[in-house]
Write a structure and sequence with these properties.
With 138 residues, this protein is an alpha+beta fold. The chain has one domain (7-133). 36% of the residues lie in helices and 13% in strands. The chain has 6 helices and 4 strands; from the N terminus they run βααααββαβα. It has helices at 11-17, 35-43, 57-60, 66-78, 106-115, 128-133; strands spanning 7-10, 85-88, 102-104, 119-125.
Length: 138
């Protein structure tokens, strides 16, 4: 664990729990995005610098489609973000279970996987016993 409450996590280990190229992680997509789609967006210069409105899209009526998610990942491949992703492992003792461990940062996760990074910086919440049992690198 780092002093700033972030961890450096083994990306291959996190990929076992959450892989945006294997699972559908964004609203309204019927299939996961592919590395080939990201490569094409990079080649064509379709890089979306705008951050996803995440939780506000339901309030303002703006939703992203497949291309926006691909182009956002492509942007982050070329322009890595220093921001940690946010993980929530839930808390079984309180009956709190999560269906997807990444609560914020799926685009950053996909970009890191695409680049072949070995680690990713994360903030984590939930059951501290579970968090401490994960394979942190920091």
């Amino acid at each position: 664990m780092e002093d700033d409450c972030t961890y450096l996590f083994d990306l291959a280990k996190l990929q076992e729990y959450a892989d945006p190229f294997v699972s559908v992680v964004w609203h309204n997509l019927e299939s996961p995005i592919t590395r080939e789609e990201v490569a094409l967006a990079i080649t064509e210069g379709r890089l979306l610098a705008e951050q996803h409105p995440d939780f506000s899209y339901g309030l303002c009526g703006k939703e992203w489609g497949r291309q926006e998610h691909i182009e956002r990942v492509a942007y982050l491949v070329v322009n890595p973000s220093p921001e940690p992703i946010w993980l929530d492992v839930g808390c079984e003792d309180l009956g709190c279970y999560v269906s997807w461990i990444i609560q914020d940062g799926n685009h950053r996760m996909a970009a890191a996987l695409y680049r072949g990074d070995t680690t990713i910086r994360v903030s984590a919440g939930g059951d501290m016993d579970v968090i401490e049992s994960l394979e942190w690198k920091g």
